[in-house]
Amino acid sequence: MHLDHRCQGVEAAKAFKRAGGTHIFLVSKPSWTIGITVNKPEDFHQVFKETLEMAQAVHTIGVTAFPVLGVHPAAITKMYGRVGLERTIELMHSGLEIAAGYVEEGLAVGMKSGRPHYEVEPALWDASNEILAYAMELAGKAGCPLQLHTETATPEGMLEIADMAQKAGLSPEKVVKHFSPPMISVFSRCGIWPGVLAGKGMIEEALTQGDRFMMETDYIDDLQRPGAVLGPKTIPRKTLSLVEEWGEEVFWKIHKENPEKVYNVEIERTTT
Q1: For strand 193-197 and strand 214-216, is the pairing parallel, antiparallel, or unpaired?
Q2: Cis peptide leading into 229, omega within 30 of 0?
């Protein structure tokens, strides 16, 4: 999820905790959504500082927040009209390098990148793929997972991305497709991990295919879009509602073993 002190911020994390939640992966928001215009590489430090400070605030209420930092792929269309494509690529590369530095310092557990989920002109698409490949290379060197925001997942697209990762030196097992549909068998074949959106019926469908996935809300924490994409209580509530039918152990796998394996973190096995 994303949290923003200008919006619900810690209050959203409190709602998550009251519903039974204990750990979150806190993903940095796009720079333009927090009022930061990136003109130079150093500007990304302020973007990531917001996420790291929010993680500390969440810790104070008894929820563990694992920061994931990176450059949203939509930045390419936000920036190139203002500074040109070459400079945009340079800045996005720098942001990813800075994010990797925070991972190497132990301040974040993963990186974020991807490519536009909407149609763009060929030059931007090619540049986006080059930036994505660079992010994969950096994540491989930093020894961390890379969370991807991309177009809607298809078997062909995921195989392409898995191949890109291998060529860049990053195992597909360290690639997470954010906002995934319940295509568990497809992801198992290509090696990428799906973060399945916990919308109506999606987790139930995923469970019929296995337990090799994680769950997400993609909570945006935006005053203009309250509750988007899904609210902070969704995953604890969804999990507890499904335990009676599916049992507890499968959810320990989804919420503890799988993210521990992918993100190299430790999730305490506690109950609330």
Answers
A1: parallel
A2: yes
Q: Where are the domains of the chain?
A: 10-263
Q: Which two tokens stand for residue 185?
A: 């068998």
CATH number of 10-263: 3.20.20.140
Query: In Å, how far are 84, 118, 208, 219, 242 from 26, measured between CA atoms?
Result: 31, 24, 28, 10, 24
Residue 271 banded pLDDT, cuts 50, 70, 90: low
CA torsion 141-147-153-157 (nearest 10°) is -10
Q: Are 115 and 128 in contact (CB under 8 A)?
A: yes
pLDDT 10s digits, 18-48: 999 999 999 999 999 999 999 999 999 999 9
CB-CB contact of 99 with 69 (8 Å) = yes
Beta strands 175-180 and 146-149 are parallel
Identify the DSSP state of 5: T
